[in-house]
Amino acid sequence: MPEPLLDVRDLRVSFRTRTGTVTAVDGLSFAVPPGEILGVVGESGSGKSVSMLAVLRLITNPNVLVSGEVLFRGRDLLALPADEMRAVRGREIAMVFQDPMTALTPVYTVGWQIAEQIRAHERVSRKAAHARAVELLSDVGIPDAASRVNAYPHEFSGGMRQRAVIAIALSCDPALLIADEPTTALDVTVQAQILDLMRELNARGSAVVLITHDMGVVSQIADRVLVMYGGRAAEEGPRRAVFHGPRHPYTWGLLDSVPRVGGPRLRRLPTIAGVPVSPGSLPEGCAFAPRCRLRHERCDERPELSAGPGAGAHRDACWLPADHRAALRLTTRTATAGAKDLDAEAAS
Amino acid sequence: MTTQDMTTPTRGDVLLRATDVTKHYPLRADGFSRHRRTLRAVDGVSLEVRAGETLGIVGESGCGKSTLGRCLVRLTELTGGRVEFDGQDISGLSTRRLRPVRPGMQLVFQDPQASLNPRRRAGDIVAEPLLVHRYGDAAAVRRRVAELFDVVGLSAAHLDRYPHEFSGGQRQRIGIARALATGPKLIVADEPVSALDVSIQAQVLNLFADLQDEFALTYVFIAHDLGVVRHVSDRIAVMYLGEIVELAGTEELYEAPAHPYTQALLSAVPEIDDGSDASPRERIVLTGEVPSPVDRPTGCPFRTRCPYAREQCALERPRLTPTASGRSVACHFPLAG
Amino acid sequence: MLHFALKRFASALLVMFAISVLVFLIFFATPGVDPAARIAGRNADPATLAQVRHSFGLDRPMPVRYLLMMRHLLVDRDLESFVNRGSRVIPQIVQATPVTLSLVVGAAVIWMVAGILMGTAAAALRGRAADPLIMLVGVVGVSLPAYWLGEVVNLVTQKQLHGSLFSWVPPPGYVGLAHPGQWALHMLFPWLTLALLYAGIYARLLRGEVVTALGEDYVRTARAKGLSERRILVRHALRCSLIPIVSLFGLDFGALVGGAALLTEVVFGLPGIGKLTYDALQNLDLPVIMGTVLYAAFFVVLANALVDILYARLDPRARHA
Q1: Is Cell membrane set as a keyword in this record (chain A) (predicted)?
Q2: What local confidence, expressed as pLDDT, does residue B6 receive?
């Protein structure tokens, strides 16, 4: 593996609340080599968004504690002075958020907002920045960019706005783009266009961290996959390895409970019992154990990410024996599709 | 067990028939022009729903699928056309005459958070339709509510809690219990699982399946997720700009889409590649975006984005016509029979 | 645009017509209120009353009386006061207007500057000690009644400390703009008194708006762009928060110019519109009341129209709606 661009080590994010400390990200480590697309998947409360906000130090709430190391090109971002951190944001690491409808300031034109980003990091004239904005808008596929650059956000459709947000993110040629559910608010045909745009950007050399809940999106675009649950990594590995031979019971559940557009149709879907763990009530041991059909005594102990047999890059955090995973997956799938009573959510 | 196994006594009879339903919204003229414009949310939709089946309605945002759902249960007045439920024309009924019909058809909403009164207990929310439709005395209502909670997988301990104390999936269960309270024949579900996490979505979809088996329910299931619609539906109507462009059995539709829009929609879904033999669909990336329902293109509504559009498509609006194989397509040059 | 302006103008006329009718009816159709009796003075004999009625046209049918009054007010512009015969209404209003405008414009500048500074500072410092402190100052300002505060200010500057600290404070009253220095000196304490009340309200409102804006997605985007905290606060959060503030400002400004600064004017002896209305009300001097009320309505409507235009300048979303 080449020297990673981003190397996150033992990242912890906790919130002080009236009822005590809530841990949203619990010792997360991962790395992104230059030029790679890392897909981060998980359900709500898995800590996938919070961890990426923490990487860019975008959590402004004073009641949040962030610890660990976030090494970007060897520098620890968490230890950087505020003004140096500002120079990293937008210039070296850009971020795109989920909802394009609210991501742009409503009172300025799209072009103004792109130019603002350029002028925050480079000494260029207003005119030159404006010209760059037109170029960028045209690059992200907005037709008639020269006149659309003067439009206000509300004059754009959702897909166009997300393109504009991406144009802002690309304006300083960042080495890393973090995209938090960039297509979730969009229609499927527009989603396909935006995913193509991300691929193009990646082909030009930027690494991408794509946060999503959609296994299909990850399967289509990621080089590597990180599955998160309860603020921890459940499984991590090259896309093919994770999708063709998932090892963690939570990943099985995620893959099996999605109704597909192809393949056999089942009357009942395999499910994961219960509800996603809330950051306030993380168990001591494996975070997934309370919902896992294969839990046993060892699960009271916290499993670490470890490689399976003969697969150095494909790691998972589970106490199950390493070699019978495929067979175990099959039994849980059939069991959970049939049983009605097991679906009912745990009374909270 | 497949969808086709299910039988109900009245299965196959037409329970709901919509004929040329339109819903137009006049737009307020702005201060600068006096020209009045119309938003054609639903523009001439005809369909039938047979007892015991699930009809899926799928389309992208703004295609009019939710408005159509509201038209079907008369939650909104139609601009034109008629809706027959159980043999009775309900499109012209007064509010009073509609009252005895209401218990037979219920709506389940997308956002369980917004559709449940936050100041009322879960038990009272489910009891409300029973009280409105004079189900019986207080004890009978209480018994029925407890029964409904059991049916949807909630416990008696949940009766006295407020909506905010539930998770998203549990709130949707309350919404479903409320819809079931009056013993409906038809449930129109408008994006009932799109706000839920994947694992919870599967649980709620299973609940829909179980309830259909148990109570011989008929569903109109509205969603934008093509995987979800395929999972639940016997037949599927694909909507675009307020019209149905294709209506077919689920298997045929996904195997061989006949309308170019259906084809493009299916090809845009990012499929999970899990190493199984399924060959990926040929990708057709549509250019541009859905036109505004205020300024509809002439002729075929899809022609501005259609990769196969020809001259005729701009001149003549294709009608939804049945083909030899039993499906219906609104296209001059369908891709399949 | 022309269509918009015409519509605004028509609705303004309608509002002013409705108000004038209302005022007229309140005074003439209220049972037990006989303007003639007031004009004629106490214990006037029936003959005098009848004569007064005739000479003021009070014996004509009501619609005629209304039209006559409007004609005198708007067409001939020679409507006279009932109380001080011979003194005309229009010149009185024309004389009082610059006083009120001086007071309100000056105070508005002070309270907007102070309100925006306090509100933005409090929002930026939320969670620290300065935030509740600034807001406390705001609450104190809001809860001090203008007439009491004005009296205290007068007491301090004109009596208690007039010999020492405030010897430079001129006696209460109004000096025209012909002497700008004296004008500002005379207006200083009235401005501060009036502004204190509104600065508190605006600071609180703006703080809420800015705090909400700082939690918006677009602020997160701005931060991810690597902008400085100051730029995020001023160019993004504050800029968007000003939109609702401006519409409120228009309403308050219109009402104050229309006479709502009455208490401040009375306390500081400023012969403005508020004072004029106040005196007319005390004497039930209908022609003057009618004049000032229509004048007030005109300013409120005008302020509303200006707010609409300003709103569109501030918020591009309102331009095409």
Answers
A1: yes
A2: 38
- Residue with the bigger pLDDT between C189 and C58: it is C189
Closest partner residue to B60 (CB to CB) among A43, A187, A261 is A187
Q: Single out the residue in A117, A148, A171 at which a domain terminates.
A: A171
Mutate to test the interface with C, among B27, B28, B32, B34 (most CBs of C within 10 A): B32
Which residues of A are less than 8 Å from C315 in CB distance?
Answer: 106-107
**Co-location of C131 and C264 in the same domain:** yes
Residue-wise pLDDT tens digits, A207-242: 999 999 999 999 999 999 999 999 999 999 999 999
User: How many Å lie between the alpha carbon of A122 and the closest alpha carbon of chain B?
Assistant: 33
The minimum CA-CA distance between C166 and chain A, rounded to whole Å, is: 46
Q: What is the pLDDT of residues B62-114, one digit of tens each?
A: 899 999 999 999 999 999 999 999 999 998 889 899 999 999 999 998 877 77
Q: What is the DSSP letter of C71?
A: I
Q: Report the alpha-carbon distance of residue A147 to residue A174 in Å, rounded.
A: 26
The enclosing domain of C286 has a CATH number of: 1.10.3720.10
Q: Collect all residues of chain C within an 8 Å Cβ-Cβ radius of residue B32.
A: 1, 3-4
Q: First vs last Cα of chain B: how many Å apart? A: 29
Q: Do B34 and C1 touch (CB under 8 A)?
A: no
Q: Identify the H or E element spanning C34.
A: none
Q: Tell me which chain C residue has its CA closest to the CA of residue A63.
A: C127
Give B212's contacts (C-beta < 8 A, 6+ positions apart). Answer: B6, B52, B54, B219
CB contact under 8 Å between B32 and C321, yes or no, is no
Q: Which domain holds residue A154?
A: 104-171
pTM across the whole model: 0.85
How far apart, in whole angstroms, are the C-alpha atoms of residue B22 and residue B82? 9
Residue C17 belongs to some domain of the structure: yes
What residues in A contact C236, CB-CB < 8 Å?
A: 105
pLDDT digits (tens, 9 = 90+) for C6-64: 877 888 888 888 988 988 888 777 776 677 777 777 677 888 888 877 877 777 888 88
Chain A residues in contact with C240 by the CB 8 A cut-off are 105-107
**Count of domains for chain C:** 2
ipTM of the complex, rounded to two decimals: 0.88
| Distances in whole angstroms, Cα of residue C3 to Cα of each of A209, A213, B33, B34, C298 | 52, 50, 8, 9, 20
